[in-house]
């Protein structure tokens, strides 16, 4: 495991060096209020972690874009989930959710069925291809998460997760309790 962690750190350092400005005057940049804004760091880290995740998902049909990983895992864990409920928790608007579902249907990963209890409602289910992909996706995202946030101690990680979950729950209704 240590060799994998060292390799991940080396790749991250190489990527950071490639993105570093070629000028020498960036070290003294004034971040203005951004240095104290959580929203700046949340947005920035989100972009960085998303790029890293896309790299780790390379070669799977879920690589690139947002929402595919969340969709396949949440539909897999909740067969019959309605698109509106899924959209609520992954923060997609109606049109973006419809496009995402269409792309995943075309890729043969999920199907929509009319609800037997409410004829106007649709439910989402994974296909055999989608179900076969779930363990691979879960394995890669768990490894990526451990590598990306590997500089945190176990306690720091638990604390950060609790804080982010608190913010998420404050802004979303009906969030299930954590394990």
Structure overview:
- With 179 residues, this protein is mainly α.
- It has a domain at 31-148: Arc Repressor Mutant, subunit A (Orthogonal Bundle), CATH 1.10.10.10.
- It is built from seven helices and two strands; from the N terminus they run H-H-H-H-H-E-E-H-H.
- It has helices at 2-19, 38-56, 68-77, 83-90, 94-106, 128-148, 154-171, and strands at 110-114, 122-126.
- It has a two-stranded antiparallel sheet with strand order 1-2.
- Strand 1 and strand 2 form a beta hairpin.
- Helix 4 (83-90) crosses helix 5 (94-106).
- The longest helix has 21 residues, at 128-148.
- The chain is globular.
- The mean pLDDT is 86.
Write the CATH fold name of the domain at 31-148: Arc Repressor Mutant, subunit A
Uncertain parts? none
Cα distance spanning the termini: 26 Å
Name the strands of the widest sheet in spatial order: 1-2
Mean pLDDT: 86
H/E element string?
HHHHHEEHH
In helices, the fraction of residues equals 55-70%
CATH class of the domain at 31-148, please?
A: Mainly Alpha
Q: Bin the strand percentage.
A: 5-15%
Oligomeric assembly: single chain
Query: What count of helical segments does DSSP give?
Result: 7
Rg estimate, integer Å: 19 Å
Looking at this structure, what is the CATH superfamily of the domain at 31-148? Winged helix-like DNA-binding domain superfamily/Winged helix DNA-binding domain
Q: How many strands, what sense, and barrel or not for the largest sheet?
A: 2 strands, antiparallel
Number of strands: 2
Under the CATH scheme, the architecture of the domain at 31-148 is Orthogonal Bundle
Shape: globular
SSE-based structural type: mainly alpha
């Amino acid at each position: 495991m240590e060799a994998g962690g060292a390799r991940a750190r080396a790749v991250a350092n190489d990527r950071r060096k490639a993105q570093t400005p070629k000028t020498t005057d960036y070290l003294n940049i004034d971040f203005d209020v951004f240095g104290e804004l959580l929203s700046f760091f949340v947005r920035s880290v989100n972009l960085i972690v998303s790029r890293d995740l896309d790299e780790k998902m390379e070669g799977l049909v879920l690589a690139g874009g947002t929402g595919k990983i969340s969709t396949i895992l949440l539909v897999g864990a909740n067969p019959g989930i309605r698109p509106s409920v899924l959209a609520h928790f992954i923060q997609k608007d109606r049109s973006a959710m419809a496009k995402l579902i269409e792309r995943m249907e075309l890729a043969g990963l999920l199907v929509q069925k009319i609800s037997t209890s409410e004829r106007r409602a649709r439910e989402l289910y994974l296909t055999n291809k989608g179900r076969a992909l779930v363990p691979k996706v879960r394995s890669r995202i768990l490894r990526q998460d451990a590598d990306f946030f590997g500089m945190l101690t176990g306690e720091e990680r638990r604390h950060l997760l609790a804080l982010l979950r608190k913010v998420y729950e404050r802004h979303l209704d009906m969030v299930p309790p954590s394990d």
